[in-house]
Amino acid sequence: MFGVPHLADFVKAYDVRGLVPDQLSPEVAHSIGAAFAEVVAVPDGSDGVVIGHDMRPSSPELSAAFAAGVTSRGVDVTLIGLCSTDGLYYASGALDLPGAMFTASHNPAQYNGIKLCRSAARPVGQDSGLAEIRDLAQWMLGGGTGLALPAGGPGSVTTRDLLGDYAAFLRGLVDLSGSRPLKVVVDAGNGMGGHTVPAVLGTGAGLPELPLEIVPLYFELDGTFPNHEANPLDPANLVDLQAAVREHGADIGLAFDGDADRCFVVDADGEPVSPSAVTGLVAVREIDRARAGGDTTVSIVHNVITSAAVREIVLEADATPVRTRVGHSFIKAEMARAGAVFGGEHSAHYYFRDFWFADTGMLAAMHVLAALGEQPAPLSELCAEYERYVASGEINSTVTDQAAVVEQVRAWAQVRGATTDVLDGLTVSSPAGEAPMWWFNVRASNTEPLLRLNVEAADRETMQDVRDELLALIRSGADGATAPPHEGGPAAAQDAGDAS
């Protein structure tokens, strides 16, 4: 097997993400496609597989090789071409087919990847088929033989353009036609937002004009990312958007990541609106929408790192908050179990029951635009009720013996009489009745020797005190550290846990 890539090196917990062509080559994509057909499409009795890709230079060739692997197993393929990841989820849901999206999201240009799903956009991860796909593809790459030829011969390939259908579907979920006029700066980062924003928020797909003036930044599709990384989690990549919002006197700024499944928001002053505040705002709107549709009990899912305000806001709306682990497969599974109408993560992934429980940054952005356009106040004032606490953002420390350091943190919490839980990493909350309130979560990366710390408190001084004390404790047993991000800005989510 000399020269054959070791798939376990780049088939991650929730998707495929590797260097092109050393790891992810057309040959590898072909084998993964054949394995996907065998593990998912054939056993599920699917009528075919839908495949989309982003704007990276390697995406067309890799997606074509994957399609050839699928058809080699007698399974039909529908190619939808250029699309965002949520555009692929739309296709999977609307066509009721398993799907594959070729993208490496915000990763640098030398990477590409594959996000896989079952029909109706149901997730495929290590525990739901990805490990079997990886192992079968590895066997085939190593010269394995023995798979029977499909009785009906190879599958067929058809091409469909679903961009207009995707845009119309989203507009049917959030009506922006009655909004007051809004000036909106959008930074697509040379990613797929440059393809989807004109269709959904403009007239690019033939839909009626909305009362939105879109000021485009970096809409040219370019997988080499010549202007900045398509990763709005990093505050450095929001600088151009912030400056443009102030320069144009815009009402709001939106920044999409490379595959446009996540959306970040800045207000008219160029200040970031935290994903937790967006979660709270959208949650209230989705709760009201569900009740108007006849739902009597409504649930909202959030992960362990979202602000404590999210739980409070959901309870104040007489709905049920459901707390779960970080990562799209956990969010989607919990939403399906609870029948939740909406789910949000600190990494700006937003999930909707009416979008097959899948995540779509575009739909979340439309909710924020609608909320802003339905009333006269600026976004900063509108979001003030959802921005209740002060967060550190995610801070990474390089730690070899992660378990030992977490135990030190647990002992620290016990001495202080704090409450703890281990749903995802270790979450520690201030003792009942103690004021001002604080809490933090420390969790190990799935892919790197890192501990990730998130702290939130009722005020900045308390947050900083808790943060600094914890960092001193963690880094006393650490190998090194990275600097904390901008306080109060979007928390970093570099782990594979969010699969983006």
UniProtKB/TrEMBL annotation:
Gene3D superfamilies: Alpha-D-Glucose-1,6-Bisphosphate, subunit A, domain 3 (3.40.120.10), Alpha-D-phosphohexomutase, C-terminal domain (3.30.310.50). Residues 477-500 are annotated as: Disordered. Belongs to the phosphohexose mutase family. Residues 12-133, 166-270, 284-389 form the Alpha-D-phosphohexomutase alpha/beta/alpha domain. It holds the Pfam family PGM_PMM_I. Its cofactor is Mg(2+). GO terms for molecular function: intramolecular phosphotransferase activity; metal ion binding. It comes from the Bacteria. InterPro entries: A-D-PHexomutase_a/b/a-I (IPR005844), A-D-PHexomutase_a/b/a-I/II/III (IPR016055), A-D-PHexomutase_a/b/a-II (IPR005845), A-D-PHexomutase_a/b/a-III (IPR005846), A-D-PHexomutase_C (IPR005843), A-D-PHexomutase_C_sf (IPR036900), Alpha-D-phosphohexomutase_SF (IPR005841). GO terms for biological process: carbohydrate metabolic process. This is Phosphomannomutase/phosphoglucomutase. It comes from Terrabacter aerolatus. CDD domains: PMM_PGM. Keywords: Isomerase, Magnesium, Metal-binding, Phosphoprotein. Residues 394-471 form the Alpha-D-phosphohexomutase C-terminal domain. Residues 488-500 have a biased composition (Low complexity).
